[in-house]
Structure prediction request, 493 residues.
Amino acid sequence: MKGSWAAIRIIAKRELSAYFESPVAYVFLVIFLLLSGFFTFTFGGFFERGEASLAAFFNWLPWLFLFLVPAAGMRLWSEERRLGTIELLLTMPVAAWQAIVGKFLASWLFLVVALALSFPIVATVNWLGDPDNGVIASGYVGAALLAGAYLAISCLTSALTRNQVIAFILAVVLCLALILVGFSPLTDLLARWASPWLVEAVSKFSVLTHYDGFQKGMLDSRDLLYFLSVMAYALFATGVVIRNHRTG
Amino acid sequence: MIKVENLSKSFGSKRAVDGVSFEVGKGEVLGFLGPNGAGKSTTMRMITGFIPPSAGAVSVCGLAVQENPIEVKRSIGYLPEAAPSYTEMSVLSFLRFAAEMRGLRGEALRSAIRRVVELCHLENVLGQTIDTLSKGFRHRTCLAQALIHDPEVLILDEPTDGLDPNQKHEVRTLIRKMGESKAIIFSTHILEEVEAACTRAIIIDRGRIVANGTPTELKARAATGKLEDFFRSITRSDTLAEGAA
Ligand SMILES: Nc1ncnc2c1ncn2[C@@H]1O[C@H](COP(=O)(O)OP(=O)(O)O)[C@@H](O)[C@H]1O
Ligand SMILES: [Mg+2]
Prediction:
């Protein structure tokens, strides 16, 4: 078990340094910080809310991440396939799942770092007022889990193709679907046609439904379980896709 | 040390490898010859455990590849066709990654890197990004990766492809030298290479072995005594083969 963790760490380390050896990481961080600040302080109604909280910031994240996370994850496996390095990686003494988990963890860590860099917003709120920092902390936990779920889906789509653009688009579409099944303007509309319990049941699968709990400061194990299962399913499917390529 | 029994691989309805059997012992260098599309790379990918066979079995150092994939991969060094590498990394960090993946640490890692850098003449490009290297250097970087853990078994898919004549000569000499203490399979479609580096050669055509012997034996089987004529007499060119299929 210790040996398998060592391999995961080495793979994750290489993946993480790959982000920072190319301009991708810096471009990503700058865009994320600019856009999250912009949405928070303009469309988010940060000042109009008249409350000291990060709701303006967190409300936009599912939409901002919808594009940024697939952009960060699209290269994970499609690049390995394009370069042919997948053949090197999988003929080294590691199991495919270790490579999948290692690469996933590296990108997730990168996204968590990006999230952490939004701390000036937290500082501003604390300076302007007296927010509930417990709620803010739980909001960040939810945001990190959301990023992980989107990322696992991007991992899957990038294993499907060696074309990063296709991987990106597929990931956006899948993540969008996971948002929309619980997006209230849409579900309210649907409730007129379908039976309310059906709409309700379907919305249980939405990332929004589970993300909202964290934003209210409620740490519910079911929400946690939801995000962890999305990640587990998507990574498992990634493994199946990679095995199928090799089987031909 | 390498034992291949009745190995077959189909992609859909296409049979890329069809009932191939052979053995390679320690101290042997096996040349794997055949026209493009003959199934050389596919066979090598099955030996290294990258793709599973449709039928048949491979064992390396007495272990079945399908049952003990990780153990088997430890004892193999592999240079895939076209010598892929992480092009955004520097040569040194790429080799360090390969060494760490092979379980090397500390002084063992440093001396392993020194050894392969010297063997593959990479001293002057260590800090360079692989992206910016010429094809010859890229190729040798990937070769260095295959040698980093001093494996007992080497699988080299077209190790001299894309090298200039001097580099080709050097790689052949290296293969012959390493072959004294390892089991090596390398594929090529350059026939002189077989005479220069192999103790034995297998010719494979459309997934089947059509000849197996020492270079001298194979040459003797051609009326003209030339390996090239023998090769041409028993294999079909790519275009003909596709037409017949
Ligand atoms: N992943 C794959 N899917 C479908 N066909 C393949 C695949 N890999 C190889 N083939 C086919 O198998 C045959 C043998 O290919 P290969 O082993 O690469 O030949 P060689 O290395 O001798 O040139 C070729 O006809 C090739 O088109
Ligand atoms: Mg080939």
About this structure: The beta strands of chain B are 2-11, 14-24, 29-33, 55-60, 63-64, 76-79, 153-157, 183-188, 200-205, 208-213. Residues 241-245 of chain B have pLDDT under 50 and may be disordered.
